[in-house]
Specification:
Order of helices and strands: EHEHEHEHEHEHHEHE
Helix content: 25-40%
Number of helices: 8
Shape: globular
Largest sheet: 8 strands, parallel, barrel
Number of strands: 8
Structural class: alpha/beta
């Protein structure tokens, strides 16, 4: 079985943010990811990680615009200056928290100019922080209408154009199933490019065990592929207590 991690922005959400770290550790997780850790000073998250012996695998970037703007804009041509300014802030957080990966969100734009902007922004970030791993993740258009990166084939085009060793694919079984109709086949075709893996059942984005994806077969395929990274649970538990949704791990 793969090594499992917890996305504590979605798991243990019944608890206050800083209490989720202890809950994740108590449930047996040794690593976590956080979508947006920017509301608190980095030292508060850092203390919670250290106190519970947890590794931080991934954070999202750029930070969301809390005044109502888009949660991502790396592919938005008019957002380049803001992207570069905000990535500098993200890199400070990533350094303080020892975040293994930064997921760069493309945002809502379409067309050739959007793709060129995304590629150039990814190159800029990768060259500015060559020791930091960055990821890109296709998101399904049902949940994120108008999102630029909505297809795994497009992700491969972007990665080929970026051509940086510290930029790779983030595979999510939930989105893969909804985008292409077969999460296992997406892994078979594109899993060799994955540097980070997330899971959630489609179509409800709850814990594995519902929907068409056979997660035991998918986990076996991930193991057989030689992938050595973490597999992060990124779903909304169907139970009131997150612990009651973790039977799929055992």
């Amino acid at each position: 079985m793969p090594r499992f991690a917890a996305n504590i922005s979605m798991l243990f959400a019944e608890l206050p943010y800083l209490d989720r770290f202890q809950a994740a550790a108590a449930a047996g997780f040794e690593a976590v990811e956080i979508l947006y850790p920017y509301e608190l000073a980095a030292k508060e998250t850092q203390r919670a990680l250290l106190a519970n012996g947890l590794e931080l695998l991934l954070i999202n970037a750029p930070p969301p615009n809390y005044t109502g703007g888009m949660p991502g804009y790396a592919a938005v041509p008019e957002g380049v200056d803001r992207f570069q300014r905000d990535i500098r802030r993200v890199l400070r957080y990533a350094e303080a928290l020892k975040a293994g990966r930064i997921h760069v969100m493309a945002g809502y734009a379409k067309g050739e100019a959007a793709q060129e902007t995304f590629v150039e922004n990814l190159r800029w970030a990768a060259d500015r922080a060559p020791a930091q791993q960055f990821t890109i993740e296709p998101l399904n258009s049902g949940d994120q209408p108008g999102y630029f990166l909505d297809d795994y084939n497009l992700a491969m085009e972007v990665l080929a154009s970026v051509d940086r060793p510290n930029v790779g694919l983030q595979y999510d079984a939930y989105h893969a199933q909804l985008i292409h109709g077969d999460a296992a086949k997406v892994w078979e075709e594109f899993g060799s490019q994955a540097v980070h893996v997330q899971i959630g059942a489609a179509p409800g984005r709850c814990e594995p065990g519902t929907g068409p994806v056979d997660f035991q077969e998918l986990f076996a395929a991930i193991d057989a592929s030689g992938y050595e990274g973490w597999v992060s649970a990124e779903y909304t538990p169907s139970s009131k207590r997150t612990e009651d949704s973790l039977g799929w791990m055992r």
